[in-house]
User: Which sequence fits this backbone?
């Protein structure tokens, strides 16, 4: 058995190296396919960060009357926090709101003068509520409309923001769905491209395969070298794709981070290195072997 | 050993060609050991007959038996075991283009499970017998037509098969090499191997004085124990 395996590997390597032009072309195509799959994988955390950033900007604010005691606000905060799908509830005191305004407009003397004109701190204490889903904001707004809170709450700005909130969440949902759909389509195209490349390579050997069968080779003796070649092509493609992916991340990491500060490509690459290697191996070697196995079946019918 | 019973082979019509009757109700037996020459014009069915024995083609009607087994009722997985008992010299050589002469011949020994030591011992010997020792490391496209034919011949007999099917083995050879090949075939036959030789070579047939089956338009018109090539 060991002799047989050694022979199969030897035949596979000789065929691969003696058909160098065809082998290189196949490796090139497979590398492109593996790179595409890696790119889809790397885009996922970037997309998540972008979406998360946008979601962070969406919230509903509850403004409390001037005379509402902080203890009442904290009690309401606890109740709101316990509502389903609430991500975060932040309390901003009147003083913090004033400080924030002054800091934001520190270079705008007009605004500061206007504030001085008012004299008193005009800002109200508030709760900024962030939910996981757009639908949840409606429920929060309805909760806050309860009779028991009417004496505490000055204003809830949900209904003013509702059109924007709905639009943002619907866009995010569309992006997610389209992303999944596009990934599936691209994945299928990638598979078909790789499969046809390997099929062409095997078709090139169709006469040889027939002769192997005619001189008494069993199906596995014929098939084995082609499966090994599929593995070899996949391995080469994986190594090259890994190097290109790493190079890409190193080269463009700073540039991407200047646009999206939370995204560090190199860090994403290194922290997911084993997963990336696994995905590329599964894509490269898996595609190579499966494509070889399927493509050769037709020619074994002698 | 080889038994054809009422074998007919019809190639179906294709886009621009009519239906072709390659063999028409052919029956004969070949026992061990025999030297049988199959003669006939081009298109008389000689190659088709050899393909049917090898299981490369299926008969339209009739049955082909090899050592008592119906070749075309065997499962695909069993065909290799039959083919390992047959050595075939194909009319178009069918050499592996990416293997050297040595590797082409060694392939059959690998297929039949011979050890590396046996391969290293026997392949150079057989290449020497066919006069290709100096070309062992050449690829088929570096060899002449005659040299390729000799590689094909070496590959057919390296594993000492029970039957040798030779389809025009001297077609590209000069008279000296043709004589050598036929002499080898006779020697192999004398050692107990069935030899089925398809040929146009009148001189060879008449010199052999062995059984001759003559085909014409797919039919056996003559089957003589000590046959001659008759036009």
Assistant:
């Amino acid at each position: 058995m060991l002799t047989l395996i050694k022979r199969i590997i030897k035949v596979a390597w000789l065929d691969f190296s003696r058909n160098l032009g065809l082998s290189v072309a196949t490796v090139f195509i497979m590398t492109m396919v593996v790179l595409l799959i890696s790119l889809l994988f790397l885009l996922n955390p970037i997309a998540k960060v972008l979406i998360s950033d946008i979601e962070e900007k969406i919230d509903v604010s509850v403004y409390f009357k001037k005379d509402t005691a902080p203890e009442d606000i904290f009690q309401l905060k606890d109740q709101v926090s316990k509502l389903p799908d609430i991500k975060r509830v932040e309390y901003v005191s009147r003083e913090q709101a004033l400080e924030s305004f002054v800091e934001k407009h520190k270079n705008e003397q007009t605004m500061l003068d206007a504030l001085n004109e008012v004299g008193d701190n005009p800002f109200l204490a508030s709760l900024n509520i962030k939910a996981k889903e757009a639908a949840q904001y409606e429920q929060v707004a309805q909760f806050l409309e309860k009779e028991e809170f009417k004496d505490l709450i000055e204003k809830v700005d949900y209904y003013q923001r509702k059109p924007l909130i709905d639009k943002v969440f619907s866009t995010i949902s569309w992006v997610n769905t389209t992303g999944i759909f596009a990934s599936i389509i691209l994945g299928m195209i990638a598979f078909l491209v790789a499969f046809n490349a390997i099929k062409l390579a095997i078709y090139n050997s169709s006469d040889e395969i027939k002769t192997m069968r005619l001189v008494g080779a069993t199906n596995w003796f014929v098939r084995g070298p082609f499966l090994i070649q599929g593995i070899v092509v996949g391995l080469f493609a994986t190594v090259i794709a890994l190097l290109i992916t790493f190079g890409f991340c190193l080269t463009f990491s700073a540039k991407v981070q200047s646009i999206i500060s939370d995204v560090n490509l190199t860090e994403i690459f290194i922290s997911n290195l084993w997963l990336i290697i696994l995905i590329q191996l599964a894509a490269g070697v898996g595609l190579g072997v499966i494509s070889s196995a399927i493509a050769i079946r037709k020619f074994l019918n002698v | 050993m080889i038994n054809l019973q009422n074998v007919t082979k019809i190639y179906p019509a294709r886009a621009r060609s009519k239906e072709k009757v390659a063999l028409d109700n052919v029956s004969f037996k070949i026992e061990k050991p025999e030297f049988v020459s199959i003669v006939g014009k081009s298109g008389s069915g000689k190659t088709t007959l050899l393909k049917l024995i090898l299981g490369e083609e299926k008969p339209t009607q009739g049955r082909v038996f090899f050592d008592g087994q119906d070749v075309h009722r065997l499962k695909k997985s069993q065909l290799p075991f039959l083919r390992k008992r047959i050595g075939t010299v194909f009319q178009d050589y069918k050499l592996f283009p990416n293997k050297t002469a040595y590797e082409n011949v060694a392939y059959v020994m690998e297929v039949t499970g011979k050890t590396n030591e046996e391969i290293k011992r026997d392949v150079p010997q057989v290449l020497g017998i066919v006069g290709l020792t100096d070309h062992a490391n050449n690829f088929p496209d570096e060899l002449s037509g005659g040299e390729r034919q000799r590689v094909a011949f070496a590959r057919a007999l390296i594993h000492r098969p029970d039957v040798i099917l030779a389809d025009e083995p001297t077609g590209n050879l000069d008279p000296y090499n043709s004589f050598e090949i036929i002499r080898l075939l006779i020697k192999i036959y004398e050692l107990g191997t069935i030899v089925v030789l398809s040929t146009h070579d009148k001189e060879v047939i008449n010199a052999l004085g062995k059984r001759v089956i003559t085909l014409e338009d797919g039919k056996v018109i003559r089957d003589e124990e000590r046959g001659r090539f008759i036009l």
